[in-house]
Amino acid sequence: MKRFAKTILYxxxxxxxxxxxxxxxxxxxxxxxxxxxxxxxLETPDGALSVAAGLYANIRWHFGYEWAYGITxxxxxxxxxxxxxxxxPWNSYDNRLSPLDCTTALGAxxxxxPPVSGLWDxxxxxxxxxxxxxxxxxxxxDEGTRKKVKGEGHFLRGYNYYRLFAQYGAVVLQTKPVDGVxxxxxxxxxxxxxxxxxxxxxxxxxxxxxxxxxxNGTWTRYTAGHFLAKALLYRQSERCASWNxxxxxxxxxxxxxxxxxxxxxxxxxxxxxxxxxxxxxxDCKNEGLQEILMAAEHNADSSTKGRYGNRTYNYxxxxxxxxxxxxxxxxxxxxxMDFQRxxxxxxxxxxxxxxxxxxxxKSFRTIYGLNAQAQTAEAAAKANGVDVSKIPVLNAADxxxxxxxxQCKGIMxxxxxxxxxxxxxxxxxxxxxxxxxxxDPETGKWVPNVFAVYEDGKYSMDTYNLTPATCNIFxxxxxxxxxxxxxxxxxxxxxxxxxxxxxxxxxxxxxxVRKGDNDAALKIINELRDRGTWKAGENRETYVGGDxxxxxxxxxxxxxxxxxxxxxxxxxxxxxxxYASYVKKNTYYxxxxxxxxxxxxxxxxxxxxxxxxxxxxxxNKLGVSPSTLEGKLHFIMNERTRExxxxxxxxxxxxxxxxxxxxxxAFNAQAAPNIQEKHNLRPIPQKFIDGLLNEDGSSLTDxxxxxxxxKGW
Length: 713
Prior knowledge:
Radius of gyration: 26 Å
Mean pLDDT: 92
Strand content: 5-15%
Distance between the termini: 22 Å
Helix content: 25-40%
Strand order of the largest sheet: 5-1-14
Number of strands: 14
Largest sheet: 3 strands, antiparallel
Shape: globular
């Protein structure tokens, strides 16, 4: 038996910040940090509900800083790092990713590199809170309250152990409250941990209400069911194959039943863009969509953000304020900060059917409006060899209505296929400062920055600036953009979706594939893909993003960015800058070359023998046949990209299926040289291991410490 010299499971200390109300309104986020938690409080209905509401604060940690993307998206196939190297070790798998937290002394680019101990510490913090809630729940006399409180406790404990298991494998199981006395414990086996996770999720699934009784963000039967299905599928996945003895059919059948229930009771949003693009501000009505099964709640009240606010708006935008030559300035009127952390790979752009899959155009932001006159028309014309009449001339007075930004485009991204180059008839491409002649065919004006995925059949998106390994130019996604921020670096107020029915469809499809019911799996996949099509009458050029929220921003009349000047030297206020920056159009037609149409599109797949060309290209590169289980799993991972790009679970899913190494080597040039078998698990934090003692109080030997560590670390 081993013990920990420091308290890692904080018991009542984790309850110093809990919710003060059990209201069904958004106010259940409100936190009160000054009161004492007592056994008596936990035994009363109102007190127990208030304490249980504090469990929700724990999940906001996931989105408060650089670890949001570092531990979930880096080192995979969809994203790689750009010119900012804050979390680089998590993407490159070099020797800085180790059991030690990577600091500047150990080679980190700065002090913000996600610590390998971060998830470990925070999940146990939440687990200790959940244990205390669960331990007292049976003392609550009112049955309805008892079930709610107990269900929430079991759900958070199951969820936190799920995150620990997915990242670290076998961990310490602690299911009883710590009362301040040092406890002895062993590292549980992977099987024991996953069995506990399934047990917690199943308990929560059986006793949580079906309705969102606290308001948006409430964990319900369907929230627990989604993760129960994922955990059962996990047990029948490749990473568990060496030890799993549970009945395959029983696990998969149970997961299938739960998934079908969720799909029936929590239907898909009718429009894909309603999930992310149509976000109009704090407590937007779309945050209450039935499809959303779990979200980290945020609002405009600074007292509800807890230890960390929502910082995810920083991570998916290119570094436009750097490369645009001053033509596009950043500010809160643009939905995302240009911290350029997550740069899509060639795989990510190419896996979409760019003609028929509307999800691509509703996820990627392809145009930024020109919001500052960086050069005179004469200077720009001379530098680029363009007629002076073609140079856009910014006039602040012109920007007084929505979408007026369409007249002056500062940045355009062309999301073309490898064999399409017709857009080059409009001139050469490049960034500001690199002479180029591209004229926007819609406006007849020169575009200061224009880039394509492919030029002349070669991948070019990573060649326009710096080197391919550190390029800060890319087309980013809009799923975290937030125009409600009242300062450029202010906290976002939008919720972060953590689980939704769109993923449930893909969990169901994979369960069916693993059972050998391939026809049923394809039917489910086609149902999901149908939501992603263009509908009859739809304008394929329309773009909408979280910038939309700025129209009601309290700072709209202020002038916070002094560089937003027009050709006459007039400074644009924030609202004018928003009108200039937010172009409600995309580059669909110039990227595809098809004639304008409002016809419906189709993404239906007729059989596993006739997969889309995009998928076959991936399978061919990987040397895998679509007729095999591995081939079908790769297809499902491709579909996950199209449906769930950037939604915080890619590393976990690739590790679960043992596809991480193969896909990272194939599609992530920065990960490929170093990734190896040991990287299917994270290292156990060294600071935890170093704190362990033997039962007699002696320190662990080096051999004992190595036995606590994951293989290869």
